[in-house]
UniProtKB/TrEMBL annotation:
Residues 26-441 form the Major facilitator superfamily (MFS) profile domain. CDD domains: MFS_GlpT (cd17345). GO terms for molecular function: glucose 6-phosphate:phosphate antiporter activity. Keywords: Membrane, Transmembrane, Transmembrane helix. The chain crosses the membrane at residues 26-44, 64-83, 95-111, 117-143, 164-182, 188-207, 267-285, 297-316, 328-344, 350-370, 377-397, 417-437. This is MFS transporter. GO terms for biological process: phosphate ion transmembrane transport. It is found in: Endomembrane system. It comes from the Bacteria. It is a multi-pass membrane protein. It comes from Izhakiella australiensis.
């Protein structure tokens, strides 16, 4: 790994009396940096979707070619989330995230100056690969700076960054079009977002923090004793310095049943999510006979309803469910099952829109809770690897089931076949939520046993 990406070692330590205020300030800076950084990744990802009408018109690309470009980015991103998140375990989170943003910006510059289809394919694949550099550092930063009891709320705040980022792409590109004119669609669609991404990368480097230890502070488990109990109860010792990212992945993730349970939760969540969002426009226009304007309203509600629900879910999982993430996920998936039935069977414009909004409101909750659960089933030094496995599984398998397999089912047996597929996915998701919950309870029991043993040892020594 390049020396630039390696985590730094603190030259000095923070004086004891300054540890608490410095820790509070640094952790808020760290959270803000990954929020803004991940938001920026969506500016140089979703801008491609906004440019597709111009690609079709100006470069005379067919719908099949545009679909191929989108699929290439999706597959490359899924693979990259697995590989890059694992590599992030051995890197400085802020440098890794900023480098990914800059590389995405460079690719977008290339898109702005390209005309050949196969060059577009290569650049889109590269963009998908570099996009995977944003997820791992985000979860690693949260795990490094925030204790388990706060990760629901903190993770919820970070999670809405992709909703915000995806939502501001259209105004950014639209403003660029208004100022530059449609004849400069390449500059407006690619180069302006690239310039903004570079600015955000600079902010990540300025605000971002590594681990508390790399900033001259004690490690999180030293400042908060309950975190030390939680880690040591599940995994003995720290990661040896000579362990590679692949060794960490094999030792702490590949052989960890809980990592597989939570990854399968995400597979079926993504299956339902992509099955809804990818086919919602066609289904509402062709089957429910919505107008384009009515379909756009339903689509908007599906996407933006996730923001308040995610924030509420983070608070509920921390406070009401005492850090247990999966019970709320199972409740949401059960409600989604019945809303899918309503969305499928109802003929009322209002009710179909309401059902779509409720599914959009709820589907991001188990996805977010699975991401928080991931940070709690492996030691801190393996978080990126666990996130990588989950990301790879969710995009390569989950998104494919919700898009390709759904389409096959619709072609062969009709729309009812697609909805049976989604409802089967909901049931499978609930099953893996339950298994993941049981695994979390087992780890919790081990933590309590470890805490009891630590309290007994001093007494026995006396």
């Amino acid at each position: 790994m390049f020396s630039l990406l390696k985590p730094k070692v603190a030259a000095t330590t923070i004086p004891t009396e300054q540890i608490e205020p410095t820790y509070k300030r640094y952790r808020m800076q760290a959270l803000l940096s990954v929020f803004l950084g991940y938001l920026a990744y969506y500016i140089v990802r979703n801008n491609f979707t906004l440019s597709t009408p111009y690609l079709k018109e100006q470069l005379d690309l067919s719908a099949t070619q545009i679909g191929m470009l989108s699929s290439c980015m999706l597959i490359a991103y899924g693979i990259s989330k697995g590989v890059m998140s694992s590599l992030a375990d051995k890197a400085s989170p802020k440098v890794f995230m900023a480098c990914g943003l800059i590389l995405c910006a460079v690719v977008n510059l290339g898109l702005g100056f390209s005309s050949a289809f196969w060059i577009f394919v290569a650049l889109v694949v590269l963009n998908g690969l570099f996009q995977g550099m944003g997820v791992g550092p985000s979860f690693i930063t949260i795990a490094n700076w925030f204790p388990r009891r706060e990760r629901g709320r903190v993770g919820a705040f970070w999670n809405i960054s992709h909703n915000v980022g995806g939502g501001i792409v259209a105004p950014i590109v639209g403003t660029a079009f208004a100022l530059l004119g449609s004849e400069h669609w390449r500059t407006a669609g690619y180069i302006v977002p690239a310039a903004i991404a570079v600015l955000f990368a600079a902010v990540v480097l300025l605000l971002g923090k590594g681990s508390p230890r790399s900033e001259g502070l004690p490690a999180l488990e030293e400042m908060l004793p309950e975190e030390k109990v939680a880690l040591n109860a599940s995994h003995s010792g720290q990661a040896p310095e000579n362990m590679s990212a692949f060794q960490i992945f094999c030792t702490y993730v590949l052989k960890n049943k809980n990592a597989w349970y939570v990854s399968m939760v995400d597979v079926f969540v993504y299956m339902v999510r992509f099955g809804m969002i990818s086919w919602l426009p066609i289904y509402l226009l062709s089957v429910k006979h919505f107008s384009k304007e009515q379909m756009s309203v339903a689509f908007l509600f599906f996407e933006w309803a996730a923001i308040p629900s995610t924030l509420l879910a983070g608070w509920l999982s921390d406070k009401l469910f005492k850090g247990r993430r999966m019970p709320l996920a199972m409740i949401c998936m059960t409600l989604i099952f019945f809303c899918l039935l309503g969305y499928w069977e109802s003929d009322s414009l209002l009710m179909v829109t309401i059902y779509a909004a409720i599914v959009g409101c709820l589907i991001y909750v188990p996805q977010f809770l699975a991401s928080v659960q991931t940070m709690e089933i492996v030691p801190g030094f393996a978080v990126g690897s666990a996130v990588g496995l989950r990301g790879f599984m969710s995009y390569i398998f989950g998104a494919s089931l919700g898009t390709s397999l759904f389409g096959v089912m619709v072609d062969r047996v009709g729309w009812h076949g697609g909805f049976y597929l989604l409802m089967g996915g909901v049931i499978c998701c609930i099953l893996f939520c339950y298994l993941s919950h049981r695994g979390a309870l087992e780890l919790e029991r081990k933590r309590q046993e470890g805490a009891s043993q630590q309290r007994l040892e001093p007494a026995q020594a006396q």
